[in-house]
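Translate sequence into structure tokens.
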Amino acid sequence: MTETIVADAPVDPAPPTPTLRQPRLPRWAPLGLAGASIALGVGIGAVAGLESRIQWGLIAALLYVALTAVIAGAVEGKRQAKDRLATSLIWVSFVLAVIPLASLIWETIARGVKVLDVFFLTHSMNGVITMDEGGGIYHALIGTLEQVAIATLIAAPIGLLTAIYLVEYGTGKLAKAVTFFVDVMTGVPSIVAGLFVLSFWIIILDFGYSGFAGAMALSILMMPIVVRSTEEMLKLVPNELREASLALGVPKWKTILKVVLPTAIGGITTGIMLAVARIAGESAPILLLVFGSAQINANPFEGAQSSLPYYIYEQWANGNAPSYDRAWAAALVLIAFVMILNLVARGIARWKAPKH
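Result follows.
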């Protein structure tokens, strides 16, 4: 049999496989667009004769959002342009929210450090003429610490027990009523809480102005925050833990005490600390109930007492340069106090967080 040898015919190269990758903007594009927007915003503001730097910033923000959407749509397509637009709006909103906060902190630090020293922290305003330099916040600092501590001792146990009832036992109309009133109390203005304590404690029961009266008003403001935060933390505890404990014959109250609360203790503590930070700067109830004093009064249950919010209001109302400096320094101390509480809350939450 003869074999026929056929020469291999030339094979045409395969057509190139179309790529699925879409063109993308380089990584430095957002920063480049931000820089270009700032330059254009400053230029437009200067040419238009706008004196406010805030107006320049708003123009730059609008240009950044518009340029991001247009350039992303031309290069990356309509779908990616929508994503870029949403991202740019989020970043612009974040910057617009941070700038006032940073400006406030910077202004407070710049003006508050003028008189903030050891003498300022360890002396009161007793015998100090408001138009003269000197004096301090020792009496107001003691008042704030005592009032906040008493309010925490009142609000934290009540809020914790209320949250446990709502999560572990609450059913029916009573639980719905408690939830409704907690929601209502969350939106109650601080001045209303102060008026309630003023009418009941001072006018009806005829007790005098004191730090304890102010602490009761602060506890009213603190309670719904503690209830809500504790309730959410308890809901995060897996039901399997409760069921396993109950299956072993452990009573429900002991399951809550030994299983549920230790599991959620980090979040509960964080919520309480944040509630404390929330009430530390309240001024309206203090103006109505504590009445203010230039002397050191370490007894919160008798006599008028000062606090940092009241001290700031009082010094600013004096209307002279030394009082303004003392007010800014007291505001700086109050901000530092709130920031320390927030840092402590975050530290406790991280310390008590479940280990992975």
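Note: The mean pLDDT is 85.
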